[in-house]
Write a structure and sequence with these properties.
single chain; alpha/beta; 4-stranded antiparallel beta sheet; 27% helix; 35% strand
């Protein structure tokens, strides 16, 4: 999904003001509010470069999982003591269970289809201790996503300038984000593109995937950044 942009990922979202510390604190509150088991192990699915793990580790024994090798290279360099797995969120198998599993920043959209959404929730539930929680930050729903809108983000650092632009597109039930990057460093200026496709699932489809996996679900409409949060509860026997 990310190739060259893995190098610039954190610079872009820092410029956008993404508050990893504040989000980690809110996640911790939600986990403590809903978790019924006594353990404190946490798996971050689609962990990216590890920015949430950096803060969640103060409360939990953390591990991360991501499909993108470039993201994991950065995360391993920063946090060599954190266990990181390269695997697909749809069908990973780690051979153990966790007390909390989180999947943030709308990464769940990359499963693309409803069938794979259900499979992903089943995979997460299989890795969850009884009494544990699954927290997912959704991608935009079909009624919110607007095709044809124009977007741009900019980075202005002394030795790094980035302009990232796209026009929101849609193909059936999949949002298509064709990013164009213009990047300037002391070594020169380059342009490249990267296409991202994320499934557009309705609120009821998210709820249905949780319920089909045996999870009780609580919905927070605001969430971490206005996209909502689904908190799935695996009841104690």
């Amino acid at each position: 999904m990310f190739t060259k942009p893995a190098t610039f990922y954190d610079a872009i979202y820092a410029a956008m003001g993404k508050d990893y510390l504040g989000e980690a604190q809110r996640l911790h509150e939600l986990i403590q509010q809903h978790k019924q088991c006594a353990g404190n192990t946490l798996l971050d699915v689609a962990c990216g470069t590890g920015n949430h793990l950096a803060f969640m580790r103060q409360w939990y024994d953390v591990e991360g999982l991501d499909l993108d090798a470039g993201m994991l290279v950065i995360a391993r360099e920063r946090y060599p003591d954190i266990v990181l797995h390269q695997a697909d969120m749809v069908d990973f198998e780690l051979g153990r269970q966790f007390d909390a599993i989180v999947c943030l920043f709308s990464s769940i959209g990359y499963v693309k289809t409803l069938e794979r959404l259900h499979q992903t929730l089943q995979t997460m539930t299989r890795h969850l201790h009884p009494g544990g929680v699954v927290i997912i930050e959704p991608w935009l729903t079909p009624d919110v996503y607007r095709a044809g809108t124009v977007h741009a983000q900019f980075v202005d650092q002394p030795d790094l300038k980035i302009a990232r632009m796209n026009i929101s597109e849609v193909d059936g039930t999949v949002s298509v984000i064709d990013f164009h990057y213009l990047v300037a460093t002391p070594e020169g200026i380059e342009h490249f593109t990267e296409c991202h496709e994320l499934g557009l699932f309705s609120h009821d489809e998210y709820l249905g995937a949780f319920v089909a996996s045996g999870l009780e679900v609580v919905y927070d409409p605001q969430g971490l950044m206005g996209r909502g949060l689904y908190v799935g509860l695996w009841p104690l026997a």
